[in-house]
From TrEMBL:
Organism, scientific name: Cinclus mexicanus
Domain Methyltransferase: 74-164
Any one GO molecular-function label of the UniProt entry: S-adenosylmethionine-dependent methyltransferase activity
Signal peptide range: none
Listed InterPro entries: Methyltransf_25, SAM-dependent_MTases_sf
Protein name: MET27 protein
Gene for this chain: Mettl27
Length: 241
């Protein structure tokens, strides 16, 4: 059979595993799927040509004032450590990670890139960190339909230092557009309220390979995605009476 032009040449097993975790199943089932996916996750996302970790880390490093080595970063929904690898390549050394899947955390631990790793189910548990603790917080790949709710944004802000950075990503494929609109409304409300300032919202065409014909928006076999960089507003200076 001639492969279709939309790059559906992905192995069916890869497509099925990706579709399963994005289907929006109930939380316990979703965590079970991620635990089961951990061993194959990196080879699957390599087959997808998943570029979000690289694109997000490059954007954050660009926004970040040097030097990077002293900065304390929290990698939220860290998975197996793909984002940490990219951040480490760009000079970030103090990396903490949280994820809802024990199987994924085990893989992340084996990278040796994190100084601290904790189990935390976003949207249900508070982040295991004091307020204003991190110079930057990343949430790459998990803001999507059936994954992490956009209601987690204030919790990400809580653990970020005033003047610190937040790097977030979402996908622009058809089945995620409703979620993306909700996310962007929530991002905008926080900006209007003076909580943070948008530095970047960059739409990138070749985010990853589409897993179905319908998801490939440009007909090129890929879906697009967005990297957002926000800076938490400094605490307003209050003059003493």
């Amino acid at each position: 059979a001639v492969p279709s032009p939309t790059g559906m040449g992905l192995p069916a097993a890869v497509r099925d595993r990706v579709a399963a975790v994005r289907r929006g199943s109930a939380l316990p089932e979703r965590l079970r799927l991620y635990d089961g996916w951990a061993a194959r996750y990196e080879q699957d996302v390599a087959a997808l040509e998943y570029r979000a970790p690289h694109l997000a880390a490059a954007s954050l490093a660009f926004a970040f004032p040097a030097p990077h080595a002293e900065a304390r970063l929290l990698d939220v929904a860290c998975g197996t450590g793909l984002v940490a690898r990219e951040l480490h390549r760009r000079g970030f050394r103090c990396l903490h990670g949280v994820d809802g899947s024990a199987g994924m955390l085990e893989r992340a631990r084996n990278t040796g890139l994190y100084q601290e790793l904790r189990l935390c189910v976003l949207g249900r548990d508070p982040l295991p960190a004091p307020a204003e603790h991190y110079d930057a917080v990343t949430l790459v790949g998990a803001l999507g339909e059936g994954q992490v709710p956009s209601t987690v944004l204030p919790e990400l802000l809580r653990v970020t230092k005033p003047g610190g950075f937040l790097c977030l990503t979402t996908r622009s494929n058809p089945s995620n557009l409703r979620y993306k609109a909700e996310l962007e409304a929530a991002l905008g409300q926080l900006e209007q309220s003076g909580a943070w300032q948008k530095l970047l919202a960059q739409e990138l065409e070749y985010w990853e390979r589409a897993v179905t014909e319908e998801e490939s928006t440009q007909g090129n076999g890929y879906i697009s995605g967005v990297v957002y960089i926000y800076q938490k507003c400094p605490v307003p200076y209050l003059e003493e009476d």
